[in-house]
Design the sequence.
């Protein structure tokens, strides 16, 4: 099953759980929403490297768990997701939030013009990508859509796992992802390991 078909199935089965599995399969809407609020505040609002205002793009937005809290701090919020069902549910969940745009994509490219975005953000999404072509294409597309001096904050996987598991994805070392970053043209602002399984990257388009 390819990545798009997999996430279409998971979205229909139990979107809240597959977006945030911390509370188990019985996660309630209120628990889901509160987890999004906490993660947004912790990972974006309180991050001094992320300039608020302007246009933000979230890669792998799902049904808008974190996306809904971006509207208070950014003029325009764009969420892209590989799953048509996730996008459909997100539009329904957040129909009152008029400055959110949900877009379905193919997992490799963004339906967005060049140099349009101030901040690109992605959390627990790249760790599920099943092949390196997808990861690298998302980095290239992010560079393309970012404005001059735009910021990209993303978490990648560093531990080797079974790709056949729904949550499995390809892994990188700081050195191997660094080569890709350099080749694309990003400047590295900061890196931060997440225990033995992840790495946060703060990148800037020169």
Sequence:
């Amino acid at each position: 099953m390819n990545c798009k078909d997999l996430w279409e199935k998971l979205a229909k089965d139990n979107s809240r759980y597959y977006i945030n599995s911390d509370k188990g399969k019985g996660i309630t809407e209120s628990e889901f929403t509160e987890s999004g609020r906490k993660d947004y505040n912790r990972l974006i609002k309180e991050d001094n490297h992320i300039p608020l205002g302007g246009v933000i793009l979230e890669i792998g937005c799902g049904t808008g768990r974190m996306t809904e809290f971006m509207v208070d701090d950014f003029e325009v919020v764009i969420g892209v997701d590989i799953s048509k069902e996730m996008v459909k549910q997100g539009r329904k969940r957040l129909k009152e939030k008029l400055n959110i745009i949900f877009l379905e994509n193919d997992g490799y490219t963004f339906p967005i013009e060049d140099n349009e975005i101030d901040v690109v953000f992605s959390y627990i999404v790249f760790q599920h990508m099943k092949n390196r072509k997808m990861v690298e294409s998302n980095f290239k597309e992010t560079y393309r859509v970012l404005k001059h001096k735009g910021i990209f904050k993303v978490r990648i996987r560093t531990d080797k796992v079974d790709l056949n598991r729904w949550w499995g994805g390809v892994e990188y070392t700081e050195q191997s992802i660094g080569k890709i970053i350099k080749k694309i043209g990003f400047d590295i602002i900061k890196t931060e390991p997440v225990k033995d399984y992840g790495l946060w990257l703060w990148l800037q388009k020169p």
